[in-house]
Structures are given as structure tokens and as C-alpha cells.
Design goal:
The chain is mainly alpha-helical. About 70% of the residues lie in helices and about 5% in strands. It has eleven helices and two strands, in the order αααααββαααααα. It has helices at about 1-25, 30-45, 50-75, 80-100, 110-125, 160-175, 180-190, 195-220, 225-230, 230-245, 255-275, and strands at about 140-145, 150-155. It has a two-stranded antiparallel sheet. β1 and β2 form a beta hairpin. The longest helix has 25 residues, at about 50-75. The protein is globular. The relative contact order is 0.24.
Amino acid sequence: MEGIHMVFAVSLLIGLLAAALGSLVGLGGGIILVPSLLILGSFWDAFSWATPQAIVGVSVIFMIFTGLTSTLTYMKSGRVDYKSGLIFLAGGMPGAILGSFLNRFISGDGFSLYFGILVLLVFFMFFVKRKERELINPKGIIVTKEINGTTYTYSFRFMAAFVLSLFVGLLSGMFGIGGGSFMVPAMILLFGFPAHIAVATSMLMVFFLSIVSTVMHISLGHVEWNVVWAFIPGAIIGGFLGAKINQMLKGNTVVWILRIMLVLVAVRLIWDGLSS
């Protein structure tokens, strides 16, 4: 019984931290949850169930709750760009379906290596200088949004958004990361989204992509229902806390903490993948 309590406590803590960090910077939480379970599964028998398919099955359900609580919080502050979010979902949903199907062909060692490389790419993306674009593309979709008395205007082409979100949806379904890991930097760097709007809109996308991915992974038999419940409380609480903290922070301290965590996780996963 004591062992069960320990596993629940660890699962709750991982879920809480993953959801809080994911909601805070719009990643969704999977980028923290998935590698954490991979690492735990490599040395703790209580997590021996953690195959790549089972981990992704847990992650996509986990992110439904993280995405829901954080999106509702961001909606109250008026930071969600619904129009852009729906356009991104047009490409993201079919990508998530395809990615969920492709996940079944990835082995354990290969999953650690590929996911480690993916995390490393996300790490480097956070070092790309972020700046607001001054020029609005008259041929693109133009969005004007007001937050706390400040008006923001930005634009993007439909086809560019569709292709990008298709790729992000593919990664979401295949690796269970929610898609925000790539979507947030891309929205800011490529389309000129203000950071707070990008994060909030990304969580809306994470919520719906996770629902699509969950349906696919359930149909493929990838969900370990006896362990999923242990992560849900952390997902709900962490998603709410991360969104609240996001509205209070102006510095980049949390982003630096996330950078450090990402590079440590990436190195560990790549090492495990190459040494197996």
C-alpha cells in the first residue's frame, strides 16, 4: 500500500509541475511529462508500464485537462485569439490523427532518441530572439486584438498556418506533446503574435488536439486506464496555476528554468537512446 501511495504522490507531483510549466509558456505539459515517464520507466519497476505508446496515451489525456483549465483561465483575461486558433486547428487535427497512427511503429529505444532530439530542438528555439513584427501582410489574415487597453495587430497567410499546424498536429499525436512546444515560438517568430496571445491561443489548440489524439490512442489500445487517474489532479491544478502565474510575470526567469530542464532531459534521453 505504501508503494502505491508513493507512485501516486510522484505521479501527482510530475503532473502538477508539467501542467504548470506547460500552461505558463503554452507548451501543454507533454514536453515535461513524456520524458519524465520515460526516465522513470527506465529504473523504477512501478513505472514498467511506461512504453512509448502507453506514455503518449497518458500524456494526451493529461493535456485535455491541462488545456481546458488553462484555456478557461486565459479566456477570462481575453487573451485567446479564437479566429487564429480555429485556423490552426484546421491543419492540426488531421495531423494529430496521422501522428497517433504512426506512434504505434516507434520502438522504446527509438522513441527516447527521437524525443530527445525533439526536446533539444525546442530548447534551441527558445534562444531565438523574439521580436514583434512591424509590417502587416495585406494579403494575409489580419487580426486586431485589444488586451488591457493595448491594441495588437498581426497577420499570417492561411496556407503557411495550415502547413505549420499540420506538422505540429503530427508531432502532437506521435509524441504526445500537445504541439505548443513548436506552435508558440512559431506564432511569435513567424507570424508576429504577441507572446501572451500566442501562449493563450496555443493552449486552446492543445486542448482540442489532445481530444483528437486521445480518441485515436483509445481506439488503438494505447491508454493504461489504471494509471491515468493519478495524473489528472495535477493536470487540473497545474493548468490553472500556470495560467495565473503567466498573467503576473514580466521577466524570463521561468523560461530560463524551462530551458535548463529541457536541455538536461534532452541529453538524458539521447544518451539512453544511443546506449541501448
